[in-house]
Specification:
Shape: globular
Strand order of the largest sheet: 1-2
Order of helices and strands: HHHHHHHHHHHHHHHEEHHH
Helix content: over 70%
Bound molecules: tryptophan
Oligomer: single chain
Number of helices: 18
Structural class: mainly alpha
Length: 448
């Protein structure tokens, strides 16, 4: 038996901010606005809200409870809960998926660092929209610079994870998440008071149900999972660090609501501005990098807002990337029995190497394509739209068909010491609705 106390979150607010930190990230501020733009605005948001609250809240509870019950990493937790089932094999896939996601995540994190640096030196002001488009293209296709930025971002991520949960991840989240919240509200207010912002609001909240197709649902599902960090055991890992007195259901509701709120505020901050200046909302991954600097250079005090924006984008990104790295590091430390220090260094180096392929996918490796996608888009699409939904099916099945119902109820009610409502609803969702609905969406979208 282990005698040393396992590291973990030391306060309720610290645990919540860390989990929200994992959830709120590039998914909300960079991905959400362009995915909404590409998928028709309001109608997409409705589907996204239904999936996030209806399906993802129970799935978030499930990951947290598996983690806290198993008190272990993504492989160890399955083994600890049910030593006979072979579900822990899915943990290996989760570790690999975290790897893949972090490898492209860190590349985008590097771009953010670059733009933050340029905002601080005011070198983005007064560029025309052609210049800005070219500027972004030049950056992502350069031979060396994206690599160096990616190294720097991975280095910063590793420097937090190496300190562990309480002294690294929890501390970082407690300091930076409140700042993130204040700043994003400031930005949203600035954006909404721009002339012409009304058109953007229209796009966001004018719901045209005829725009909802199977593909909208598929994209909304991928976006919800990605944004909530679900499907690869990242939340299982954080759940394992939660204290026994925390209320899992309440925490999940707080996390999901905050994440949605951030996405909507980001949408409110970005989309109205896009319309106010006649840009295309479906501009893809370049949206925040190309469109926003243009907007900032045209509004009063824009250079300050620009610094704020890229700063919060950076904070949001790093509080998420640390959760991805922690998923891998926790596994390596506990299953392969090496020190956290070594585990952090080795895994970061390997992830950095894999990330190089993503970093070069617009430049030196631009000709390498599979299914019409370059390495970066391939990894992004494979991970969010396929691995995350598949992982969630496994997790839901494990909690509702393999684990004893008594154990699940014990964990959700903290051994009967707190009252939990709607458990019936929870079990119906996790046992039937989630596995069936997710499989249906996956099969339908991939095969037909
Ligand atoms: N949720 C984060 C974001 O929105 C990214 C992230 C962190 C993630 N951990 C994850 C995505 C685990 C999928 C799975 O940017």
């Amino acid at each position: 038996m282990e005698t040393k106390k396992r590291d973990g979150f030391n306060s309720r607010i610290g645990a919540l901010l860390a989990i929200i930190g994992s959830a709120v990230g590039l998914g909300n501020l960079w991905r959400f606005p362009y995915v909404v733009g590409e998928n028709g605005g309001g109608a997409f948001i409705i589907v996204y809200l239904i999936i996030s609250f209806g399906l993802c809240t129970p799935l978030m509870m499930t990951e947290l409870l598996i983690g806290r019950r198993g008190k272990s990493n993504v492989v160890g937790a399955f083994k600890a809960i049910d030593s006979k089932s072979k579900f822990y094999y899915s943990g290996y896939i989760f570790v690999l998926a975290s790897f893949l996601i972090l490898s492209f995540y860190s590349v985008v994190g590097g771009w953010v660092l670059h733009y933050l640096g340029e905002s601080l030196t005011f070198s983005l002001s007064n560029l025309s929209s052609e210049d800005l488009t070219l500027h972004f293209k030049n950056l992502v296709s350069a031979p060396v610079r994206p690599l160096l930025l990616h190294f720097l971002f991975m280095f910063l991520t590793a420097s937090v994870v190496i300190f562990g949960i309480e002294k690294g991840i929890e501390k970082m989240s407690k300091i930076f998440m409140p700042i993130l919240f204040v700043f994003i509200v400031v930005l949203a207010i600035r954006s909404l008071t721009l002339p012409g912002a009304g058109q953007g609001l229209n796009f966001l909240f004018n719901i045209d149900f005829s725009k909802i197709t199977m593909n909208t649902v598929f994209e909304a599902l991928g976006q919800s999972f990605f944004s909530l960090s679900l499907g690869i055991g990242c939340i299982i890992t954080y759940g394992s660090y939660m204290r026994s007195e925390e209320n899992i259901m309440k925490s999940s509701i707080v996390v999901v609501s905050s994440d949605i709120l951030f996405a909507l505020i980001a949408g409110l901050a970005i989309i109205p501005a896009v319309f106010a200046f006649n840009f295309e909302p479906a501009a893809g991954p370049g949206l925040v990098f190309i469109v926003l600097p243009q907007i900032f250079s045209q509004i009063a005090g824009g250079s300050v807002f620009q610094i704020i924006f890229f700063f919060i984008l950076f904070i949001a990104a790093i509080t998420s990337s640390i959760s991805l790295l922690e998923t891998v590091v926790a596994y390596v430390v506990e299953e392969l029995k090496i020190t956290r220090r070594k585990a952090t260094i080795y895994t970061s180096i390997i992830i950095t190497i894999v990330g190089c392929f993503c970093a070069l996918s617009e430049g030196a490796l631009a000709d390498f394509k599979l299914f019409g996608l370059n390495f970066f888009s391939l990894v992004e699409t494979l991970a969010s739209n396929i691995l995350l939904p598949l992982g969630s099916i496994f997790i839901a099945i494990f909690a509702s068909w393999v684990m004893k119902k008594k154990d699940v109820v014990e964990e959700l009610s903290n051994y009967g010491t707190i009252k939990v409502k709607n458990l019936g609803y929870y079990f119906v969702i996790v046992k039937f609705v989630a596995p069936i609905a997710i499989s249906f969406i996956l099969i339908k979208s991939l095969l037909f």
